[in-house]
Specification:
By secondary structure, the chain is mainly β. 6% of the residues lie in helices and 39% in strands. The protein is built from two helices and 18 strands. The strands form three sheets. Strands 3, 5, 6, 9, 14, 15, 16 and 18 form an eight-stranded antiparallel beta sheet that branches. Strands 4, 7, 8, 10, 11, 12, 13 and 17 form an eight-stranded antiparallel beta sheet that branches. The longest helix has 12 residues.
């Protein structure tokens, strides 16, 4: 790549356009790259409820009671026959309130076959009843009806059902106000879904959660991707700071440091 072209690519992404970008490693082309959320790329999102783009971030809910927010990309992404994909995003949950300042309820990364959004609040986290969908939740409230293991866990949820099919306790306090980084990868050949979580942008070698499933049983090939969140009797603010998605598996995960721009996440 020439220096002139490299500068142009850098300039585009520093102002936050959601356009394909070519990695400098063997990752092919990233289908969706949003290093920050701006008014320019907000038009690509369908936002409902309390969700909006503000200050370079996608704010899904404020820290107020009984809110929900959903943000889905208008354009569907076509997954292959085995439904493989890779995703990376940075998020923050903060200003928790309620008994013992627990906060609630959590943030969810979603892939679904329709563009509809639902106003599910509290334990529903904005995605309950979404139909054919794969949902990765970062849950900060223990709901007995969902058999949650605790008030700080990561879970896999299917077809808009708020009861997880697999959960693991988070190694950090998810709503402590820090920016956390998550990678979600699905290998359709191995039928293996992996979720990684870190306090830095360096992808961990080992997954936090690994779950064996056949996503073809859940999703048709064309999917809409995005995020949901909700509050209930307890509350907190939910934000997504950046988002990268590819409609094929990247074996070593999406590596934003290898791309043709730099990304800074505010605290």
């Amino acid at each position: 790549m020439s220096k002139l072209v490299s500068r142009c690519v850098t300039a585009l992404f520093m102002i936050g356009y959601a356009l394909p970008v070519e990695s400098s490693v063997s990752q092919g082309r990233i289908a969706l790259a949003v290093p920050s959320f701006t008014n320019e790329n907000a038009v690509l999102l369908q936002v409902t409820g309390d969700a909006l783009v503000k200050d370079g971030r996608l704010r899904l809910t404020r820290d107020e009671h009984h809110l929900s927010g959903t943000a889905l990309y208008h354009t569907a992404h076509s997954l292959g026959d085995n439904r493989s994909f890779s995703a990376y995003f940075a998020f923050r949950m903060w200003r928790p309130s309620g008994a013992k300042e627990l906060g609630a309820d959590g943030l969810v990364f979603v892939l679904q076959n329709n563009l509809s959004s639902l106003p599910g609040m509290g334990q529903d986290m904005g995605y309950r009843g979404a139909g054919h969908s794969l949902n990765i939740e970062f849950d900060t409230f223990q709901n007995g009806a969902n058999k949650d293991p605790d008030s700080n866990h990561v879970g896999v949820n299917l077809d808009g059902n708020s009861a997880s099919v697999s959960t693991v306790k988070a190694p950090v306090i998810l709503n402590d106000g820090k920016v956390y980084h998550a990678w979600v990868d699905y290998d359709g050949d191995q039928h293996l879904l992996e979720v990684r979580l870190s306090s830095s942008a360096e992808r961990p070698t080992d997954p936090l959660l690994a779950y064996t499933m056949d996503v073809t049983d859940v999703l048709d090939s064309d999917v809409f991707v995005g995020f949901t969140a909700a509050t209930g009797g307890f509350r907190q603010q939910h934000e997504v700071h950046s988002f990268f998605f590819h409609n094929e598996l990247i074996s070593d995960g999406i590596d934003t440091s290898a791309m043709e721009y730099s990304m800074e996440l505010g605290q």
